[in-house]
Amino acid sequence: MAHIPGLRSPYAKVGRLVYFGRMLDKIRLHAAGQLPAYYVANLGVRFDELTTRTLSGGLDDAQLLAWCHERGGPRTDEECYTWNCFLMKRGWRDDAQARLRQRIAESGFESKPILTFFDYIDFDEGRDPVAARAWES
Q1: What is the mean pLDDT of residues 125-131?
Q2: What angle do CA 63, 69, 72 make, to 5 degrees?
Q3: pLDDT tens digits along 67-96
Q4: What is the dihedral of CA 25, 29, 35, 40, to 10 degrees?
Q5: How far apart are CA 129 and CA 54, in angstroms?
Q6: Could you tell me which of 49, 46, 134, 48 has the C-alpha nearest to residue 88?
Q7: Could you tell me the end-to-end alpha-carbon distance of the chain, in angstroms, rounded to an integer?
Q8: Coil, helix or strand for 13?
């Protein structure tokens, strides 16, 4: 995959959560016809209300997250920490490791220091999370 302008790293946080901003980016890029078909299939979950709210404008990412918290209930620091750790380590010594290894091989990334799906996504989109130490942001 090539770098897609406007699609941020999954490591990037909005508030206390990783990946949330990337999900919003996908909604916006898809609506603008700028999200490659490969990503459209991976949206997977219905985001009808969030999509409507995101595309209506007027709210930044932090406000959209606050809106989600209002609708679904606020999350504790511990819940955010657990979510972030789970997603940032997905593919490392878990049931998704075989799929991650398959994607690495399909992409010819065997020489890259990829340990997780987040690492894979960043390398696949032209970013180097290891050099950037993205998980520390």
Answers
A1: 91
A2: 140
A3: 888 887 788 999 999 999 999 999 999 999
A4: 70
A5: 27
A6: 134
A7: 24
A8: strand
Token duo for residue 127: 């970013």
Which amino acid, 59?
L
> Taking the complete model, does pTM exceed 0.85, yes or no?
no
Structure tokens belonging to residue 68:
């989600």
What pLDDT is stored for residue 44 in this prediction? 43
Rg from Cα positions in the chain? 15
- For 11-33, give one letter per residue: b (16+ CB within 10 A) or e: bbbbeebbbbbbbbbbbebbeee
Q: How far is CA 137 from the centre of its chain?
A: 14
Q: In the numeric block, which tokens belong to residue 55?
A: 């595309």
Q: Are the C-beta atoms of 68 and 53 separated by less than 8 Å?
A: no
Task: Establish how many alpha carbons lie within 13 A of residue 76's alpha carbon, considering only the half-sphere containing its beta carbon.
Answer: 3
Query: Which residues, including other chains, have CB under 8 Å from residue 10's CB and lie 6 or more apart?
Result: 18, 19, 22, 87, 117, 118, 121, 122
